[in-house]
Each structure stands twice: as C-alpha cells, then as structure tokens.
Amino acid sequence: MERILRSDGFRSSEVLRKLLTYLADKAASGEADQLKEYVVAIEGLGKPTSYDPQQNSTVRIQVGRLRQKLAEYYRTEGIHDPLIIDLPKGRFRLTCEHRVSSEIAVPELTSPAFERTPVSGATLASTRHWKGVLAGFAGGLLLAALCFLLLGIRTRSRQEAFVWSPAMEELWKPLLASARPLILSIEDPLFVEVNSNPGIYYRDRSLNEWSDTQHSPAIKQLSESMNRANVQPSRYYTAFGEAEAAFHLGRLLGSRAQNISIMRTSQLSWHQLADNNVVFVGVQNLFFEQLQGMPVVSELVANLEGVKNTHPAPGEPTFFRDEYVTAPAEQGVIYALVTHVSGPMRDNEVLSFTSIRSPGYVGAVRFFTNPDTAQTIVTHLKEDNGGKMPRAYQVLLRVRFKDNVPTETTYILDRILH
Q1: How far is the C-alpha of 407 from the C-alpha of 400, rounded, in Å?
Q2: pTM for the whole structure
Q3: Can you name the residues that pair with 191 across neighbouring β-strands?
Q4: Of the four listed, 161, 250, 310, 349, which is most buried by Cβ atoms within 10 Å?
Q5: What is the DSSP string of 326-365?
Q6: In Å, how far from its chain's centre is CA 146?
Q7: What are the pLDDT digits (tens) for 246-266?
C-alpha cells in the first residue's frame, strides 16, 4: 500500500490517496463488506452528512477513478509487484492476490493484467467438475491471451499484418484516427458463488447485477439446498468466444492503435466510456445496460431470445428470433448486433459486437475484419445515408453455427442512428 501511495499516479491525487487508505483500513479490519455508499462518502471522502447517494454520484465517480488508477499503476510502476491490489466493481472491499508467476511483462503494452480470468463453459458444477473443465479452458484462454499479446498488440512482421482495404479503413478509422486510448472490453458475466465445500458457481443469464439476485427464487432455493450457505458475486469466468474475438481484434487493431488496453466489462466505468474509444465483445444484455442514457437511441434492441426491430420498414419482421440447440451439440441460427455510437459527450466512439451466444459475436467480428465482407457493410451503410458513412449505426447479421463454430454469416439490414 505504501508503495502504491508513493507512486507518481497517486501522489498527484490526494482524494484517491485518502479513499484508497480508507478502503484498505476497512479491508484490514474486516468491515469492508458492510460498507455502504453513504458511509464511504462521509468517512472516506469527508462529505457532509447531508450527502444523498440518489442525487450525488461523487462516490461512484471517485471509486471508478480509483479502480482505473490501480490498473494503471500495475501496468506501469507496479508491473513487477508480487501482489496485486484490486477493487472489484460493485463492491467497496479491496482484494489482494499474488501475481500469477507465468505473467508476461510487455513494457510497451498498456493493458491491465488479465491472467486471472480463466474460462468456463458450465453453469452449475462442483469443484471437482470445474477443475476438469477449467484446466482445459484456462489453457485455451492463456494461449489466446498470448496470441493477443504477441500477434496483435505489437505486430512486428508485415506478413502478419492485417490487409487494410479502403472499406476496412472507412469502418475502423473513427476508432483509430483520434489520439484517445482504445479499450477492448471483454465480457465477464456475473456468477453466484456458493460458499460450500466443494464450491459451486451458478450462472443465470437474466441476472447481471448483484442486486438482481436478492429477489431471485432460484438463488434462494440454491442457498437453502446447501444448508443456507452464503452466496457472493463472482466475475472470475468468461467464455472462450471472447478470447477468440479478442485475438481477431488484436490482429486488426494492434498495429494501428497507439494506446490499446484490455479490460473486463464489469470494471468499465461511465467515466471510461466518456474518455476512451471502446470496443466491446460479448453477450448483448451485459453491455447495453451500460449504454442507458447515451445520446443515441438504438433502433434494434436485443433480448434473451433475439433482436427486436422497433421501427420495421415495409416487409421487415418486427422480431428476429434465435433458433438453436445447446445439446448434444451447439448448433443453429442466431443474430448478432453490431452497434457504433458516439460516447456520452459525443466526442468519442463506442463499438459493440453482441449476441446471445459466442458464435454470434465471433462471426460478427470476423465479418467486420474481412476486406470482402467489410465492403458489403460499407456499401449498404452509404446507400442508406446519402452516399456517406454515418457517424452512428447498427448492423444486424445472421450467423449459422455448428459445434459452437460460426459457419456462415449473412448481412440482414442496418439502421442509421441520429
């Protein structure tokens, strides 16, 4: 803690130094889990007792800044620190973990550590089962992460560089032309961790915020079946599809972006959405909840069953329904939604590749990173916008897949957003 507080990044911010010291003291005393936003405002930030969390977002803003500053510290001055102090999103309790020994230090890569993100394909399993599942998937994620680092972020060889066609340039230029940092945001969905022996992790796709679980009958029944075991949030796992998509995006953007980092979506704050260009990959409802209050309103709206067409043109359906099976093999047809909008202040770019299943957003990423299919997208967007590329738009794609692998991706329609 003393080393962090003496660092260049924290020496210049007395507010963050004070907040970090306060949260560290509470973590050490075991009181952090009971902290509320009001208490942090009064005791941690010195706000008056009239502070109203419903009207004032100071605590949320400063906690978001602290989380970002800690990540920045471990990318720079603290890159060789043996312990990593973190502040998980949605909580006031600091965590402290040993740095994974296999971590690779790449000095010119400005990316938060992601070596603590293994991969899960299961929903509810015992520890014995998870060890077998995670052993295989974690190795795959590590390999994908290494590929992202070595092939993507700093592509040395021209033979490895992506082919940039004029259409590719038009699609991706808004994200790369500015001097703003670029964040690649990877989904890390909410799991409910049951404190039992062996441990159990439960995933409900309709529960994406911890407050949603408080009134869930399934969570209550699960806890009671485990002798009223305590439950707590966990965002430790992500799907292999995100790693694959990150690999493709790393190859594409790595040689062009000067300042690119990778971040878990649960740690992406509203402040960062306003200050950085952001590319998101993952399940649609996890990210679009972040976009509430953005200056552009979506016309294609995703849910757990497909994509709703809020203003259908003549002959267009009002809903595009996913049709797939998950057992004994993952296959079927799903829809992927690509949304490009301006940020909260209208001076940065936010691009998302979303679908309800990983083949959807992997197929969408491939579609946008292929020179031939990129031309298809640009042609349609220009036709619908008077011959010019629009600032904000949505593109709907249909992805056919088998064994969780996208086999065919088809352009369906687009919407110009205003």
Answers
A1: 6
A2: 0.60
A3: 234
A4: 250
A5: -SSS-EEEEEEEEEEEE-TTSSSEEEEEEESSHHHHHHHH
A6: 19
A7: 888 887 887 777 788 888 888
